[in-house]
Amino acid sequence: MKNFILSAFLFFSVSNFAQIKGTITDEKGNPLPFVSVFEENTYTGTTSNEQGKYQLNVKELGKNKIIFQYLGFKTQKLAVASDSKTITLDVKMLEESFALNEVIIDPKNNPADAIIKSAISNKKDNSDKTGRYTADFYSKGMFKVKDLPKKILGKKVDLGADMASNLDSTGTGILYLSETVSKITFEKPDKLKEKIIASKISGNNRGYSYNTAALSTYDFYDNTLDFDIKLISPIADNAFSYYKYKLEGSFYDDNKHQIFKIKVIPKRDKEPVFEGYIYIVDDSFAIYAIDLDIKGYRMKNEFTEIMNLKQSFSYNSANKIWSKNAQSLSFNAGVFGIKFSGTFNYVYSNYEFPVSFEKKTFGNEIVAFEPNANKKDDAFWNQIRPIPLTIEESTDYTKKDSLQTIRKSQKYTDSIDAKNNKFKVWDILMGYNYKNTFKSYSFDYKGLLNISSLSFNTVQGFNLDSGFSFRKWNEEKGKSTSISTTFNYGFSDDRLRITGDFSHRFNNINYAYISASGGTKTAQFNGAEPITKFVNSIASLFFKDNYMKLYNLEFAQINYGQDVANGINLNAKIAYEQRKPLFNTTDYSFFKQDDIYSSNNPLAPNDFTSSAFDQHHLFKTALSARINFGNKYISRPDGRFNVRNEKYPTVYLIFEKAFAASEKKYEFERIGASVQYDLSLGNKGILGTNFRAGKFYNAENIAFMDYRHFNGNQTHIGTTDRYLNVFNLMPYYSNSTNDAYFEMHLEHNDMGFITNKIPLINLLKSTMNIGFHTLAIPDRKPYSEFTVGLDNLGFGKFKLFRVDYVHSFQGGIQQNGVVFGLKILNVLD
């Protein structure tokens, strides 16, 4: 009832606004987009759309003075007097004539440098003026695609029926269009509270737009701005190390403020920098406007060609504050000849600048949606929307919304499913998928020739998976249930192993879930599985190196987990396990056929008759926790979505116990902890850290697979983006322990801070990684590694590789090696 009254009040308030609307053009009649339109000395404003059309809601029409402000054109102030609720006011803007400063105190100095220095010295004062506020916020986002082919690398491009129907015959059209209206409360540096009043996605009345204020805050008074990497502000404290400046002229706004137009020029092309123009107000040296480009390679995003960010600020003479009233972010990107573009427009209005906020104003909830935020009708949007829709946008809404009812109907979804669900004879070999969209369930059969699962190891030889799976879901309630079974057949040991899995997620609020699994499978002694099937197959078949060591596991296991408090997730597990040793059954390889594989015993690679353990069984239980300190979250009617606070580390805790074993010696207890944290060093990169420690109790004679194993690497191939969980030259089981342990991984990625400044190296557009890894266990000398290498290597837009030099030492034994990172293996395995 409370939310209904609030919504009714908001709608009533909006419907009682008077509206000024029209078209803004230049002298030749060309429409001008992104023109700031606002009422003088108020925080009521809007901006024009791509066709130059605008609409401004004001409290009443009387003797209003409306200001039209656009970079490169003279600011206009027009008086409006009318008794009507709606008035049309078309505006023709004249180009600004920029004048160079006539007075230069010291001809040897660049006048732009003096202005920028003043802007830097005054930025704290200017920033503090808008350091605490409430405001109304509107955003509109659109993604478009051009020249999308029907197939890429032989694979059919499947966007789904809804999206595909929006494209014309050339593969061109709008993929996504959404709008958001919200009320925001903000305090620097990063306290935010946002209430979403209305959210709209074209063709999806169940969707919730992510165009929030939290994702659109770009403050050039800060030293850096976050665009995946930290870009240097043109008025950062160290800006002169990255930029040159040129004063191209000045002009006066309607309040007689002199505005300096300064060109921002990068000193080095590959640095994380902007280029374009910044407009600075004389006397206060506040930002008047921003018009800056960001090249994709400068933010280590090769798929983005260029991004443009515009900001416009308006002045209120009552409180002498320059506040941001409009922002536009647009980009062009492309890959495989396909071109993508996007535009996000933002309007800030109705500012209030309180002296302070109450203590409980800000909490862990950063975004909340009204229950019916995505149910607002067209009348509501037509009244409250500050930026008129373009013809293209209006057509997209009309088309998609009209088709939505049809596409959600059972008749339509059944017809689409019937087409896709047709069974073909070769599906017996290649696999088959059946889906009932209306009833929200699917069935999948992997096929007898599931080639993607084919792998090789010396225990099974070549082995292949097949299986069945069933899934049912409810998107609105966040529920999902899946049941699957996997059949794995080894051709060399001539054995079929079968496992089954069941899982159910109860909701999207606390993410409670339960799962059960069981069956028979081959398992690595190291449960973390540091050796992927793909890498082991290549190492074995081409180089006769069978690093993967396996045992036979018959098991039954139940898991339950959920969020028990903000940022705290608990998981409980109980399992029955019967372990049996396995031996090599094949010596096959493509090359080096005269060489001999090592045995399947990780403790004795040359012993082909003894195993690393005796057959036994036991029960294991474990209780683990993940703690994200300072965790934030977004509340939506369909769920709660966690947003990790990057200021704080993530902590993992575990208690594990083995009991009811076939022999008492296999029973033990273990406690463990891990702390993971990424320390941001601004434009100097990120220091990733991972600390782990633990201790076994009553574990003198436990089975080898229950030891604490550490992720080594003898293949010289890296398969992950970062090496914060691996020792790259350590043999896989050389330091396994059933006692206490401590491991530390540090890796600093400079994000180009160093490599951008090194001639020739900077042409690679790469980043530098410097790492240190160490492991300490009782009765053994510590193992340590130093690494240095280049990341973000590749061809064209595809940066899938890294190369590291590694130096390791343990007890006087030193090794040197090179590790080649193939991040594409994350996809292949």
TrEMBL record:
The keyword Transmembrane helix does not apply. Keywords: Signal. The keyword Signal applies. Residues 1-18 form the signal peptide. It comes from the Bacteria. Pfam families: CarbopepD_reg_2, DUF5686. This is CarboxypepD_reg-like domain-containing protein.
